[in-house]
Amino acid sequence: MSVQTEQADSVHRAGPRKEDAPPGGPAAAPRRRAGSAGPYLLLLPALLATVVLLGYPLVKNGMLSFQNLNPRQLILHLTEWNGFSNYQDVLGGSDFWKVVERSIFFTAANVVLIMVFGALIGLLLARLGKKMRLLLMLGLVLAWAMPIIAATTVYQWLFAQRFGVVNYVLDALGWHSMAAYNWTGGQFSTFSVVTLLIVWQSIPFVAINLYAASTTIPKELYEAASLDGAGTWKSFTSVTFPFLKPFLLATTFLEVIWVFKSFAQLFAINGGGPDRLTETLPVYAFVEGVGNQHFGMGAAISFLTIIVLLALTGYYLRTVLKQEEDEL
């Protein structure tokens, strides 16, 4: 009896057991609530900057797209609302749909070339020695770091009709008909020059990104594949490509956005010419809005450009998610 009484007294003095007490004590719940707001507070400056720098111009552009805004309205400080007239004029004409089709094909051709050559150079970086890799990466970074207008000026000089380096080299190699060829005189040739410029500027991002991703592939996977008798191609399809696939999809998504909204290269090369045959949606919006001083029309075209880009990215993301679900 005395032993049982002493045990009961010790339990009574010890109070509730540790596992019965709420973890962290009564102050734990307020601390958790305060800590849960920390990430949102850290994101607040970035969200405010996004709203100020992107949200306000977007809202302002949307308001302009519902106005009849020409030089007369600007001089007299008049605000003439015309509802959906700008959108009706744009969507009712054939020019807009031709430009949309042209923009989609232009984006698709550039992205395919960028991803193919960028992936090949990225894989080449992984196989080169240290010195050659450093030299190649230096060249890629210099090409990537060159400002767009500066690079466009260089390409204008390279493909100039009279004193261009390209025409001189082709003439020296025997193609004498190319001695004074006008590279910006036709739709296909102009798009060829712009495509070469955009691909040259975009390859470094893809190549360096994929090379960095390839360095994270465990070497044990390649050793296991070689033990199974896999050659170079089999190792690529069974190890390298599955591991790099998420990086390829993400990079393709970024390149679609970057190429679709390209403006400076096309406008600086030939202003969307000849005869407005190389205008994509960003150039078309600028020419109609600023060039022809139909600012409300230009705002409507730019808003429709955003919608087309969202539709393309939405379709791409839906395709990617569907592939991931099929793999699971």
In short:
This protein is mainly alpha-helical and 328 residues long. The chain contains 15 helices and no strands.
Q: What are the SSEs and their pairings?
A:
Layout: H1 2-14, H2 28-36, H3 38-64, H4 71-76, H5 85-92, H6 94-127, H7 130-145, H8 148-158, H9 165-172, H10 187-214, H11 219-227, H12 232-260, H13 264-270, H14 281-291, H15 295-327
Q: What this model shows, in words?
A:
Helix 5 (85-92) packs across helix 15 (295-327), helix 10 (187-214) crosses helix 12 and helix 10 (187-214) packs antiparallel against helix 13. Helix content is 76%, strand content 0%. It has 328 residues and is mainly alpha-helical. The longest helix has 34 residues, at 94-127.
* Structure annotation, total helices: 15
Strand content: under 5%
Main pleated sheet: none
Distance between the termini: 65 Å
Low-confidence stretches at least 5 residues in length (pLDDT < 50)? Answer: 1-8, 10-19
- The residue fraction in helices comes out at over 70%
Q: What are the secondary-structure elements, in order, as H or E?
A: HHHHHHHHHHHHHHH
Radius of gyration: 30 Å
What's the β-strand tally?
A: 0
Which structural class should the secondary elements be placed in?
A: mainly alpha
Average pLDDT confidence is 83
What form results from the Cα inertia axes?
Answer: globular
Task: For the structure shown, list the relevant keywords.
globular; 328 residues; single chain
